[in-house]
Specification:
57 residues; mainly alpha; 0% strand
Length: 57
Amino acid sequence: MRDMLSKGSCTLGGAVLLGVGLGLYFMEQSGLAFLGALMSGLGAGLMLMAGGSSGSD
């Protein structure tokens, strides 16, 4: 269980950092682009974390 949480938090953190990086790139165009990139990074991390769980606790 502890390994799954560690792996999931790394996946989620990496996706959020990817979203922040993309958001900072698009920050010059619109402030909402930063928020959109952050939310899509968070969503992608959650989807990867849910898809990678084996379900056998």
